[in-house]
TrEMBL record:
This is DNA-directed DNA polymerase. It comes from bioreactor metagenome.
């Protein structure tokens, strides 16, 4: 199930085993709201998205219980504004070895945001195969800007 909306009442609590933090929030949409639960791995991946009033797209499973409120067990959280966006990385020139190194870097951040490698010398952009699409997080953007240069990495 995929749902878009605003996160509200965001809270983090330790797991019963104490091995990490769980995220709890309310995901509010146009027609209603649902309790949202993020397990430690998902909460860590969500990073700065897990804040009140964040517009998000949540992918997960509906947990229906007779004795308690239904909830959405979130597997993935994305910024709602980044749907249909692409990441552009500009290079002065883009020989095959540079493209392979760039793709190896991108593969470590596997996700669903398309990436275009732009060859400034040829004024030509080349979309990478889906296996090199990335997940846009603050950590990824910082690593990409560090590797390729802040002025060369753009999200459009």
């Amino acid at each position: 199930m995929i749902v878009g909306g605003l996160l509200t009442q965001c809270k983090q609590k330790p797991t019963r085993s104490g091995s990490g933090l769980m995220g709890y929030a309310v995901l509010e949409g146009i027609t209603g709201s649902v309790e949202a639960v993020l397990f430690p791995r998902t909460l860590q991946q969500a990073g700065s998205l897990f804040v009140d009033d964040a517009p998000v797209l949540a992918r997960g499973r509906l947990n229906i219980r007779e004795d308690r409120t239904n909830s959405l067990l979130i597997d993935e959280l994305k910024p709602l504004g980044e749907i249909n966006r692409s990441l552009y990385i500009r290079f002065d020139s883009l020989p095959e070895d540079v493209m392979q190194k760039a793709c190896a870097f991108l593969k470590r951040y596997s996700g669903e945001t398309s990436v275009v490698l732009y060859d400034a010398a040829k004024k030509l952009g080349k979309g990478v195969p889906k296996e090199f699409y990335v997940t846009i997080t603050d950590a990824f953007l910082a690593a990409a800007e560090d590797r390729f240069g802040k002025e060369c990495v753009k999200l459009k």
